[in-house]
Design goal:
The chain is mostly helical. It has 15 helices and no strands.
Length: 333
Amino acid sequence: MSERRFHVSPYLLLTLTSLFWAGNWVVGRGIRADVPPIALSFWRWAIAFVLLLPIAWPHVRAQRAALARHWRVLLVLGLTGGACHNALTYTGLAYTSATNGVLLASSTPIMIIALSRLILGKRVRPMEWIGVTVSLFGILAIVSAGDPGRLAALRANPGDLWVLVAMLSWALYTVLLHWRPGGLHPYAFLAAIALFGLIGLLPFYAWEIGSGRRIVPGWAAFAAIGYAGVFPALVGFIFWNRAVSEVGANRAGIFMHLMPPFGILLSMIFLAEEPAGYHAAGIALILGGIFLTTRAGARGQRTEDRRTRNPQPETHRSEGKGVDDASRRSHEG
C-alpha cells in the first residue's frame, strides 16, 4: 500500500507566515528599549538555528557536498533574507511609528513584482497588477483611518528609510529563491541560511555591544526573543520558502498585505484597541486583492499546463519529423 501524504495549501502557509510576522512587528516595536535591534536579530536566528540543527543535521551531512558547491547562493540568501532584512527592520522600528512601518512594508509585493520583472524577466498579468493595487488601497484605508488627509500628515524619519531598505532586501531574497539549489532538503537549506545570517550579523552585534547597547534582562525581553526565534524565524521561513517554491514570488508577495490586518487583530487582543469601520473596509479590500492575484496566477498556470500537455500538432509533427530524420541519418552514417 502506497503512503498517502498530506499536502498543506501554500496559501494557508503564507497566511500563517503573515500572522507570525505581524506579531514580529508588534514585538520589535514593543521591546525596542530593552533589546537593541542587532541583538534581537542575532539571537532570534541563534535560537532558530539551535532548534533546527538536531532535525537538520542528518540532511546537512548527507548533502554536505551540495551545500559546499552552492555556498555562494546560500550566502547571498542568508545575508538578504536573514541578516539584512531583520536587522534593518528592527533598527527602523526603533525610530519610526508602527503606522509608518506597516505602510512601507506594504510596498514589498510591488518590489517583488518589479524585481521579478527586472531579474527574472517574469511577465506580470494585468489582473495581478489590479489585485496588488486593490490590496494596497486596503492598506491605505487602514493606515489613514479612512481619512486620506492623514496620509499627508505622516512624517518621514530615518526609521522609514531603514524599513524601506529592509523590505527591499526581503523582496530581493524572495526573488533570488528562484536560484535555490534543487534537491536540497528544506531543513538543510534553512540551516545554511541561518548560519550565514548569523555570520553576517556577528561583526555588527559585536559593534553594538562595544557601543554600550546591551539587552536589559527581563521576562519580557526573553519572551520576545523566544517568540521571534521560533515563529517568525524558524516556522515562518519554512512556510515561506515552501510556499514560494509552489506558487512563485509574485503570488506569495501579495500575502504580506495580510500583516496590517493581523497587526490590528493582535492589537485588539493584547492592547485592547477598539476596531473601527475603516478596519473592516481595508481588510475587505486586502482580501479582495489577494483573491484577484491568486486567481489570475492560478488561471495562468492552468493555461501553461494545458499548453504543455497539448502541444500544437504542427509543431509536434515537425519535431517528430526532425527526430526521425536525425535518427535516419544517424543510422545511415
